[in-house]
Amino acid sequence: MTEADLVRALLAARDRQSPTPPPTRQVAGLDLEGAYRVGAALDRRLRERGYRRAGWKVGFTNKAIWPRFGLSEPILGPVYDRTLRNAAPVAELSLAGFCAPRIEVEVVFGIEAGGDAADWPRPRWMALGFEVVDCHYGWQLTPADSVADFALHGALVVGPRVHRAAPGFAEGVERLDRLVVRLSRDDEPVAEGRGSAVLGHPRAALEFVPRLRPRFENPPHPSGECVVSTGTMTALAPLSPGEHWRVEAHGVDLPGLGLVLEE
User: Fold this and answer.
1) Which residues pair with 80 in a beta bridge?
2) CB 258 within 8 A of CB 103
3) Positive or negative, the Cα torsion across 69, 74, 75, 80?
4) What are the residues whose beta carbons fall under 8 Å from the beta carbon of 40, sequence distance 6 or more?
5) Using 50, 70 and 90 to split pLDDT, how confident is the model at 122?
6) What is the mean pLDDT of residues 118-145?
7) Which of 75, 104, 69, 65 is nearest to 235 (CA)?
8) Would the pLDDT of 113 be above 80?
9) For the packed helices 3-16 and 32-48, what is the interaxial angle rounded to 10 degrees?
10) Is residue 48 classed as helix, strand or coil in its secondary structure?
């Protein structure tokens, strides 16, 4: 199978919500560079269908696992207008379009779109977010398989935003390494995580976006800001219709958010 064949197979898996073998088993010798070529081709195909980029997700942000996978930096994948949701403070999301969805709790930033490198460490706003990740080959993750499979991105639900003009915003950003999040499902505790699990500090994820985004084409950004999800603070948890998920923040003044899952 060629990389072009793999692109068609992954698009079909997404369209049918069906599993497919891991990309690295389908294309002999597929490494991270090849996976980014596949990811860029899939991004192009989605944009041909009318998707517009709304931002980026940063993944594999737990440095403790890098030696196991031979990584020296995180991975990157696009977020789209059709995969972005806002919670105020509760969002609803249908699972009908997913193959094997799981949930992550992340810090999300808003960055000036089109800004220069100096703008990336200076977010316009911050929020808690749920990324619903989806995998079409089973959850035995490797960086190359993950990048090729749409960077595992399914949906990004962004909670109420704290803007730069808010009192204590700059101090809050600085304290994100001390952030503690508690995740619950149907009012039962599921997981706890910390901001320090994301590259030592969630803001550190921002520096990798301008470094890695040249691996993708660079169409004009449709809005005045770029949304960036910075990587999970909690272990992935599987999702089922009818569940009500909730995350609360401690140590930093960030509003919590909820997510109701539908068929």
Assistant:
1) 53
2) no
3) positive
4) 215, 216, 217
5) confident
6) 91
7) 104
8) no
9) 50
10) helix
For β-strands 257-262 and 153-158, DSSP reports them as unpaired
Query: Which stretches within 121-212 are classed as H helix?
Result: 143-148, 169-174, 208-212
Tokens read off for 133: 């990740």
117 pLDDT more than 90: no
Judged against a pLDDT cut of 90, whether residue 141 lies above it is answered with no
Peptide bond into 89 cis (omega under 30): yes
Q: Which of 112, 123, 130, 143 is nearest to 204 (CA)?
A: 123
Nearest to residue 138, comparing CAs of 226, 4, 22? Answer: 22
Reduced to 3 states (helix: H, G, I; strand: E, B; else coil), residue 79 is strand
Whether 258 has a pLDDT exceeding 60, the answer reads yes
> Which pair of tokens denotes residue 258?
């909820």
Strands 84-86 and 153-158: what pairing? parallel
Tell me the residue ranges of DSSP E strands in 38-97. Answer: 53-59, 75-80, 84-86, 90-94
Beta strands in 2-67 (DSSP E): 53-59
Q: Are 237 and 68 in contact (CB under 8 A)?
A: no
Q: Within its chain, how far is the Cα of 152 from the centroid?
A: 8
Place of tokens 């999300």: 108
Per-residue pLDDT at 216 exceeds 90: yes
